[in-house]
Amino acid sequence: MTRQIKLGAFLPGGGQHIAAWRHPDAPADGATNFEFHRRLAETAERGLFDAYFLADNLSVGLGGREGGNAKIAGFEPVTLFAALAPLTTHLGFIATASTTYEEPYTLARKFASLDLLSNGRAGWNVVTSAGDETARNFNRETQPSHADRYERAHEHVETVKALWDSWEDDAFIRDKATGRFFDAGRVHDIDHKGKHFSVKGPLNAPRPVQGHPVVVQAGQSEDGRRLAAVSAEVIFTAHQNLASAQEFYRDIKARVKRAGRNPEHVLIMPGVAPFVGRTEEEARSKYEELNALIVPEDGVALLNGLTGGTLDLTGYPLDGPLPVSNETEGMKSRQALIRKIADEHGFTIRQLYQWIATARGHYTVVGSAEQVADQLEEWFLSEAADGFNILPPWLPGALDDFVDLVIPILQRRGLFRTAYEGRTLRENLGLPRPANPWTLARATVQAAE
Amino acid sequence: MTRQIKLGAFLPGGGQHIAAWRHPDAPADGATNFEFHRRLAETAERGLFDAYFLADNLSVGLGGREGGNAKIAGFEPVTLFAALAPLTTHLGFIATASTTYEEPYTLARKFASLDLLSNGRAGWNVVTSAGDETARNFNRETQPSHADRYERAHEHVETVKALWDSWEDDAFIRDKATGRFFDAGRVHDIDHKGKHFSVKGPLNAPRPVQGHPVVVQAGQSEDGRRLAAVSAEVIFTAHQNLASAQEFYRDIKARVKRAGRNPEHVLIMPGVAPFVGRTEEEARSKYEELNALIVPEDGVALLNGLTGGTLDLTGYPLDGPLPVSNETEGMKSRQALIRKIADEHGFTIRQLYQWIATARGHYTVVGSAEQVADQLEEWFLSEAADGFNILPPWLPGALDDFVDLVIPILQRRGLFRTAYEGRTLRENLGLPRPANPWTLARATVQAAE
């Protein structure tokens, strides 16, 4: 089959842009409105998206307290997706969860449960949860170092995968006649004893429908890339231009190959924030309309929040340049990216937050539906992307625009599906179902005998 | 309004009785079948139950590995209930979660999220998760002592409640015109620094619809009763006879009063496992049919599992008496209860597990619908119960029997509702919505000025 674009939809109920909730079409309470999330899921499924994706923080986030950010309080992603699963049939659900502040047993179980009740549509976006604000909600004064968080993340992900594998696929017998419910030879302790975790297992959930829920990763730092290369099957990434996306794509695919994995089984999906119009002019006026709604104090707080509280601009003039500062432990890659944008464009603080407010470091496309489709096609065909994570700047309008105007063009060009191919998220993404290592080991022994 | 019986439905998909999955009417895969859980929720709502209740373990449980227990692997309660919430409209959902192995921030958030997406139908059953098997899934070799677990539980529950209160009810302004999304004066750090937890807050979820999800507790030990008296609004409890239930009822109501709380706002709901027939004879044959399905090894493993692995009967003859042993740290009250049953009835090991297999220490009623209703009425009117947690021995049959045969009798006697009174779980249970302490403090200051 021809290679086609994969699409995630990044749909926080309050919208992606910091002023999204002020948009005339948006419900002001979208962040905490379940029926609104249900409508978003239905639209994403109508658009044949692979998955609904949600980022997450374990604190109110964004540094300052005062202000207008709708993301400050809302649903926990796994419970929200569990509620949306029975209301949909094909859409995948990629929930963010933390390796720094959650235990492997609890995390493995909730994703196994989501995968079971959605019939194989769960994905886990692995994050290490930067920032002291979050650390202070979990018995610490400051966050662990970047290196420590990633070391723990490696061990965490391997432990979670081992727990998902602790029951073999055929462990359940359920024979009413003999009373044998399961085969004790096909359920296994994992006996993990590492630097960060000791977990005996087995998990108290059957092996997930997908074997493993799809493992997703988004870190762009050196540590993040290393983790992605050995663990991730989908990688979300933020790039401002084609060359940067191509560099990342080549680097990750090479790392994946060096790690002994098949590069075709690791999908790279940059974020794209599309302002779509019937004409370029209409798209541009949508862009300007939304940016005009940003309250300045919220813009400054956004920059600080995005860097885990390491970019405090209090007291600096809004129409002056970004002050110089040293790199800190929090969110290295994100602060570097934001500074690069400011440097490249010669932005003032105000111009910077206006730019960032739309897509937070992701690629912003403003144009007619044909122009937007052209951009996606170019990235997809020039080794910059296997698909995209679409970040509609406001909701529901920008999602509707993408589904109604851009998707049909991609379909006509043969670049996107016209019906779901499979039953599970993994099948739609074209990713193989992981073999169970216990089953594999027994098959190997039997073949040798 | 006349006082009426409150009803919880304890509906693990695999059934309550250890051999429930072998029942001819039961789906053998009920424990992991989402559509089956949906049917159970719909039946419970048709029966006007206050809530669907699920217990929980953080390990495969039940000591031995081999065997026929369907509870060994299944859904995580909060994700399951999140999925069932949009498919129902009035039924409450009481999920069990652990104060020993979960962080207050994460726990407060997932219940706030469940409460939000269910429009105020969440309840939290507070447990301390006994047993070394569980401890070994969470970086320990042995469990913390009983006293330590309960000390931590007290601090945990207070921290969770403070997080739920960190946003005042009217904190969200969402004024599109001014761009003010919330009132910074109505969101608060909790700044908790205790022996077990340091949590700064605020929670990244709005105050729950119910103020607090309903707090439920089930411990029967001295430590458990102390926790229930200061924290719980619903208390599940296990009694074999009226006198024992009355003693517990009187003791708890007195403790609640001494703690400065209103005893009418703490509902005591003993567990009842009903075998209902159109005649007593039919009920008795249902009871015998189910007990005949127990595999002996599973019965022995059940006794050990129920006591947190402290009652290892390997090597003792099944038709001999229960051996003497010392009380250990694990599940004090449960082991004492099981020994008491064996002593009172002069049971052999086999007879003991057959008795326990039905209701695990709860009250078993075998009789015609009128007889079962008589028993519930007697307990309800003689200060033994404010309601009951119904444990159908197998599913769906025993739940259907209760809803179709017993509920109409209770309704005719005026002992049970004929329609839901309220919108939230708290309203149906007749429990007040907790005031927010920050709002209260401001009102007090303003009144004094």
From TrEMBL, chains A, B:
One of its GO terms (molecular function) is alkanesulfonate monooxygenase activity. FMN binds at residues 56, 96, 146, 150, 221. InterPro entries: Diverse_substr_monoxygenases (IPR051260), Luciferase-like_dom (IPR011251), Luciferase-like_sf (IPR036661), NTA_MOA (IPR016215). Keywords: Flavoprotein, FMN, Monooxygenase, Oxidoreductase, Plasmid. The keyword tRNA processing does not apply. Its EC number is 1.14.14.5. It is an enzyme of class 1 (oxidoreductase). Residues 20-379 form the Luciferase-like domain. Belongs to the NtaA/SnaA/DszA monooxygenase family. PANTHER family: ALKANESULFONATE MONOOXYGENASE-RELATED, C2H2 FINGER DOMAIN TRANSCRIPTION FACTOR (EUROFUNG)-RELATED. This is Alkanesulfonate monooxygenase. The lineage of its organism: Bacteria, Pseudomonadati, Pseudomonadota, Alphaproteobacteria, Hyphomicrobiales.
